[in-house]
Amino acid sequence: MSIPSTWQLDHIGIAVSSLNTALKQYEILLGTQHYGREHVHSQGVEVAFLDTSNARIELLAPLSLDSSVAKFINKRGEGMHHTAFLVNDIQSELDRLSALGWDLIHRQPISGAHGKWVAFLHPKSAHAVLIELCAYKK
Ligand code: ZN
Predict the structure, then answer these.
(1) Residue 59 alpha carbon to ligand 1 centre in Å
(2) How far is the CA of 113 from the centre of ligand 1 (A)?
């Protein structure tokens, strides 16, 4: 019998060129207003969130041409950027995955949106999906 995962789907990140344009469209789609719009300087992006009943959508737009999201959009266009999971202890999850040979972009969490800790796993370890781990700061 498998042990239930403690990970929770937190949000899907979507890279967009214009946050204003994308927010209008996604507010119509989901029938809700966005919240938590803020600059996340550690990642060179402006973000805003929209709730669904069981997870959130994060729209992220680059703040500068050299941000990783700007490079992503230049290379692939707008679209699905990352999938984020909420975990209890982000450092112990990073240590666990590192010990298993996973390719981590961050070996230690950095400060993310809304005062959470975040860390990214390299897409090559997760079948081409960029995975974000996030955790509440304790
Ligand atoms: Zn995210």
Answers:
(1) 8
(2) 8
Question: In sequence order, what E strands does the chain have?
Answer: 8-15, 35-40, 45-51, 56-62, 79-86, 110-111, 116-121, 131-136
Q: What is the pLDDT of residue 1?
A: 66
What per-residue confidence (pLDDT) applies to 90? 96
pLDDT tens, position by position, 50-68:
999 999 999 999 999 999 9
The strand pairing partners of 13, in sequence order, are 58, 82
Q: How many domains are contained in the chain? A: 1
Give distance in angstroms: CA of 4 to centre of ligand 1.
23
Q: Is residue 1 part of a domain?
A: no
Residue 126 within a domain = yes
Q: In CATH, what number is assigned to the domain containing residue 45? A: 3.10.180.10
